[in-house]
Design goal:
By secondary structure, the chain is an alpha+beta fold. Helices cover 36% and strands 17% of the residues. A hairpin with a 7-residue loop joins strand 5 and strand 6. Helix 2 packs across helix 3 (31-40) and helix 5 (82-91) crosses helix 6 (98-108). The longest helix has 15 residues, at 165-179. The two termini are 71 Å apart.
Length: 221
């Protein structure tokens, strides 16, 4: 690419009628370089205009004649493996590698439509979901108590050093004070502070921590 100073000088010298040899001598370059610059089209663009690069012609690939076969087979059988397709197009004469076939299949394989997300809806004030999440920090491990309202998806979080009953009670009281009341239902994902044993495999029920059962309920929201 020619610098804008030399491009301006080259334009000037050409306008003055100087020969290529004379321009090369003025600019301190070879006559061939002057010819190449003129033929490149660089002089036709403005000083502040970015250079125009010619798009490289696509490189022919051995897979090109077989792309139609691959796309048709995938339309009929979207889950057809690349290995199976390789066998089929090799039977048709393909002698290329597996990698370029695999890359092409990844771009053209039909994707199944995404299933719509069905949100579980609850009435305002009906339900809250509670769980602990583990976090590792440079100063040690901490446990976040998460309380989420089912209707509004409003989230309350507080970190604790331990994942015990005291932390659970403190967090629940803090969360519902923040929310302004208590929901009619509270869902726990078999939290150890709440469920002490699971007897369902033997025909029994979940055994709930007696201390948790004594925990006071508050006004509903």
């Amino acid at each position: 690419m020619i610098g804008w100073e030399r491009r301006m000088l080259l334009r000037h010298y050409l306008a003055e009628g100087l020969s290529k040899s004379a321009i090369a001598e003025q600019l301190g370059i070879s006559r061939k370089t002057v010819t190449r610059w003129i033929q490149s089209g660089e002089l036709d663009r403005d000083v502040d205009e970015p250079p125009r690069y010619r798009a490289r012609p696509p490189v022919p690939r051995k897979l090109d004649p077989y792309r139609g076969i691959i796309e048709a087979r995938l339309q009929a059988y979207p889950k057809l493996s690349s290995i199976r397709l390789l066998e089929e197009i090799r039977a048709a004469g393909y002698d290329g590698g597996y990698t370029q076939l695999k890359e092409f299949v990844r771009t053209v394989r039909p994707r199944p439509p995404e299933e719509p997300v069905v949100r579980f809806e609850t009435e305002p004030g009906h339900q809250a979901q509670v769980d602990f999440a583990d976090f590792r920090f440079p100063w040690g491990k901490r446990y976040a108590l998460l309380v989420v309202l089912g209707y509004s998806r409003l989230l309350w979080v507080r970190f604790y050093r331990r994942k015990d009953m005291r932390s659970l009670f403190d967090g629940l009281e803090g969360a519902f004070q923040s929310f302004g009341g208590v929901t009619r239902e509270i869902l726990f994902d078999q939290m150890r502070s709440v469920i002490t044993a699971d007897g369902r495999l033997s025909g029994e029920k979940l055994i709930t921590n007696a201390e948790f059962l004594r925990w006071d309920s508050r006004d509903q929201i």
